[in-house]
Amino acid sequence: MKIGILCSDADTVTLVSQLAERHDCTVHASPAELEMACKDGAGLLVVDLDDLQGHPQANAITELIHAHRPPVTPRALPAVLLLATPAHQNWLRGMLVAGANDYLVKPVRRQELALRLDLLLMAAQPHEVPERIVAAGGFTFDLARLRATHPDRPELDVVLTRKEAELALLLLQHLGRPLSRAFLRERVWGGEAELPTRTLDTHISRIRTKLGLHPEYGYQLATVYGYGYQLEQLP
Q: Which of 126, 141, 152, 233 is 20 to 30 Å apart from 211, CA to CA?
């Protein structure tokens, strides 16, 4: 698949290219070039909103997104992933309403970007997206299909939501370390300022139940009073 990138940050461009190494990634210098990439068959666009600020053709991107989302074909290509900061809130909302598929709050994190790209690639071309398998803390995650398994528990094959998968990976990749509520909220929900206070607790409870993070299975997911959560793998 062709992937069009509008981003001047070299590290982010490199990261996108690495994570989508089986696809044809091309960096574009302007909204006009990105529009040409769409006409040339790009299936996914990655757009850094910082690169649109003050650009005379900035509105063309919103129009471009909207043009590919007519009511009769809501899944028409290309899929669009936006990279944004909290300062872009109003602009971001407009682009999401226009039809952008997803967004990431900068600074971009590898694991989160991998999840977003996998999901959008799967939606754009479901029969051509390679599986992305990640092992963490004894579990195996199929991030393309959002499923989790455990080699020692053949009966475990659970379907997770995207947020549950991201939160579970964070906990499993930091076994034995207390993680603050602020850290978990920022890493998983980013700039969602209106996130209900119980949302994190609800997701923790779901992960504990779905993955069986209980002592009888060798795990203990505990509340760290006044701070956050800690997942331990027991002997």
A: 126
**Is the Cβ–Cβ distance between 9 and 47 less than 8 Å?**
no
β-strands 79-84, 42-48 pairing: parallel
Distances (CA, A) of 141 to 1, 43, 77, 115, 146: 24, 25, 27, 11, 7
Question: What pTM was estimated for this model as a whole?
Answer: 0.54
**Residue 103, C-beta contacts closer than 8 angstroms, at least 6 positions apart:** 81, 82, 83, 84, 92, 96
Q: Tell me: the pLDDT tens digits for 58-79?
A: 676 777 776 655 443 444 557 8
Burial (CB < 10 A; 0-12, 13-18, 19+), residue 148, is: buried
Cα–Cα distance measured from residue 1 to residue 24, given in angstroms and rounded to the nearest whole number: 6
* Structure letter (DSSP) for residue 123: H
CA geometry: angle 139, 111, 182, nearest 5 deg: 95
Tokens representing residue 92 in the block? 């971001």
**Three-state DSSP class for 6?**
strand
